[in-house]
Write a structure and sequence with these properties.
Helix content is 7%, strand content 55%. It has one helix spanning 11-17; strands at 4-7, 24-27, 30-35, 40-53, 61-64, 67-71, 76-91. The two termini are 24 Å apart. This is (S)-ureidoglycine aminohydrolase cupin domain-containing protein.
């Protein structure tokens, strides 16, 4: 699935990336079908989620509050949110053909 999870990155790294200036997104517990048109980097302030690739019920990646996560372009997946999500995020600029 190629989701990269960095647990508890340093405040220096978060500051260098400018994480706190990124837009925010939040959601309540539940299941959400998502498609990532571009690569996303996000930092979870609150919450916990399991991400299942489309068509799988056993393979998943789990991450939560304090994790810096990179989600690959083109991933179709289901987010199973167990704790309210509050995250900062940014998408890579679209690539031209």
């Amino acid at each position: 699935m190629n989701i990269i999870v960095e647990h508890n990155p340093s405040t220096i790294k978060l500051s260098e990336l400018g994480v706190m200036s990124w837009p925010k997104w939040s959601c309540q517990p539940g299941k959400y079908a998502l498609v990532f048109e571009e690569r996303e980097t996000c930092y979870l302030v609150k919450g916990k989620v399991k991400v299942y690739p489309k068509g799988s019920s056993s393979e998943f990646v789990e991450f939560g509050a304090g994790d810096l996560v990179t989600i690959p372009k083109g991933l179709s997946c289901t987010w199973e949110v167990s704790l309210f999500i509050d995250k900062h995020y940014k998408f890579d600029p679209p690539t031209s053909l």
